[in-house]
Amino acid sequence: MSRRIFDEPFKRMALDLAHARGSIKDVAIELGISSNLLSKWKDREGIAKTDATSLSEDQQLIRKLQKELKEAQLERDILKKAVGIFSKGDGRYSDL
After folding, report:
1. Per its record, what are the GO molecular function terms (predicted)?
2. Three-state DSSP class for 34?
3. 56 and 46 share a domain?
């Protein structure tokens, strides 16, 4: 069984998605990778966790809204890439 090699843009996208959704496990399942691998990438990036209980209500709301915005932006970017892939097409998807 050969090891899969992931490029830096994929790792960054996976980490951003995990950060936006707040769940490494869910993102790992969705992307078909190990949650341990995603956790290692996160550790290497040095992304620090902030204790949500020490934040004021306003700070928690800002954090929640930033998370939702980041997730929406990631989804938009993924859809843009999909449109690009399908629009290049070789005619296989023209019937859709």
Report:
1. DNA binding; transposase activity
2. coil
3. no
Domain range for 65 is: 52-87
pLDDT at 36: 92
How is residue 17 written in tokens? Answer: 């998605």
Are 5 and 31 in a shared domain? yes
Tell me the pTM: 0.46
Does residue 9 belong to any structural domain of this protein? yes
Which tens digit of pLDDT belongs to each residue from 22-69?
888 988 998 889 999 989 988 887 744 545 556 788 888 898 999 999
Report the amino acid identity of residue 75: E
When divided into structural domains, the chain yields a total of 2
Residues comprising the chain, all counted? 96
